[in-house]
Each structure stands twice: as structure tokens, then as C-alpha cells.
Amino acid sequence: MSTWVYACLERLTDQGWELAQPLRPNPEFDGDLVPVNVAPESWGKGNFAHYYAISGERDLPGDLSEALRRFLDQHWDVVNRPSWMSLAEIAAHERADVNGAHAHLNADDLRTGDYADDRLRVVFWADQ
Questions:
Q1: Which of 23, 80, 82, 124 has a 20 to 30 A CA-CA distance from 3?
Q2: Of 56 and 42, the one with more pLDDT
């Protein structure tokens, strides 16, 4: 059985956390505007479990962006194994994985604007 993973990029602004990318229509959610899923297609059960473990199994952040909270409330009865990591943590983990043992989120692709890596985070969860 495959695991479906969702990961969303947030950035910290002077007003608090917000989605780093605009909402987009998605046919899997009846065409509703939803956050962009930044999880790599190669992220299955094993890679998700690895990132979940190294994240410290943090649960959803208490200061989750309003748009992501609305999406979760509207489309998810149960958010399974939620956690998050800063982009600085993700980049450090990618550098440490010199043998390429895991599929990564690719910190370089996630960097946006002039935001420092500690002001960007990826919030992620799985469907099972």
C-alpha cells in the first residue's frame, strides 16, 4: 500500500507565518484552491518516515498559517503524523546525506525571495 504525503512551504513575515506560494486549484480537491504540495513524488512511506523521525515528530506548529489551517480543517478529518522542519534543518540534513540514501525535499528549490532558511519551514503529514 502506498503512502500519500503532503508538504507545504510556509514563510515567516512580520505578520506571522503564511504560505510561501499562492493557493492553486486542484482537481483532487474538487477544484478548490489549495496549498501547493512540495513533497517530491519519490517521497513514499520510507522517506516520509525518515523525515518524520528526524523532525522530532513535532506535530503541527501552534502558529500554523491561517490558509494552511483552513485547508486542513476543510479537507482532512485526521492529519496523520504531522510535523515540520525549518529549511535550515532540511538543508543540513541534505548535506549530511553524502551517500544519497533518502529522497530529499531539495532545499535549493524551496528557497524563496530574500527569506533566510530559518524563516522558511515545511509542514508535512501523510494519509496513513
A1: 23
A2: 56
